[in-house]
Design brief:
Elements lengths: L3 E7 L5 E8 L10 E9 L5 E8 L6 E5 L5 E7 L8 E5 L5 E6 L6 E5 L4 E7 L6 E5 L5 H20 L5 H13 L1
Antiparallel strand pairs: 1-2, 2-3, 3-4, 4-5, 5-6, 6-7, 7-8, 8-9, 9-10, 10-11
């Protein structure tokens, strides 16, 4: 797939709902860097819903999901060094957490809240990478899509070996502080 471009998220009647502009080109690893990776907006108007930035502070990659004005909503990070370890979204304001885990024997992904309540399910549709995302009631569809796409970016980095989980980064930070 292309490192830069635009995709559309469509509803069940194949009408575009969201537009996603993405830039997955590699940036040199620099502590404290914020690199725009995804911009989620309305498909018909240019109303921006979220801007996802890669954060490389403290040597642990995260994807920050920001409000259009730039304030932080939350951060998506890997729980380990493989897709099977899962990912989490920690929100800034109300300290809620959403867990993303691989569906066994599938390339699907499910999201649950801190109480285990299912929020969304993502399953592959075809060999071309198209997917179906089912979002539960009272779940913000824009936030769900932004978080799923942020997980995609981190998964790509895991496959390329360019991301570290928080646990690994924190243990390396702690080790370096002790020396």
């Amino acid at each position: 797939s292309e490192p830069k471009g635009r995709i559309f998220i469509r509803d069940l009647s194949d009408k575009p709902v969201f537009k996603v502009e993405f830039d997955l080109t590699s940036a040199p690893f620099r502590g404290g860097t914020h690199v725009d990776r995804l911009i989620l907006s309305c498909a018909k108007r240019h109303n921006i819903f979220a801007i996802c930035q890669e954060c490389t502070e403290h040597f642990a990659n995260e994807i920050a999901i920001n409000h259009p004005g730039g304030t932080l909503f939350g951060k998506v990070s890997p729980k380990g060094n493989t897709r099977a370890d899962g990912f989490s979204l920690s929100t800034q304001a109300d300290t809620r957490e959403v867990h993303f885990s691989a569906i066994p024997n599938s390339s699907g992904l499910e999201a649950t809240d801190e109480h285990g309540q299912l929020l969304s399910v993502t399953v592959p549709l075809d060999e071309e990478g198209r997917r179906s995302v089912r979002i539960g009631p009272f779940v913000d569809a824009g936030l769900a899509v932004a978080a799923i796409l942020a997980v995609d970016v981190l998964e790509l980095q895991l496959m390329q070996g360019t991301v570290q989980s928080h646990k690994l980064a924190r243990s390396e930070e702690h080790t370096s502080e002790l020396q």
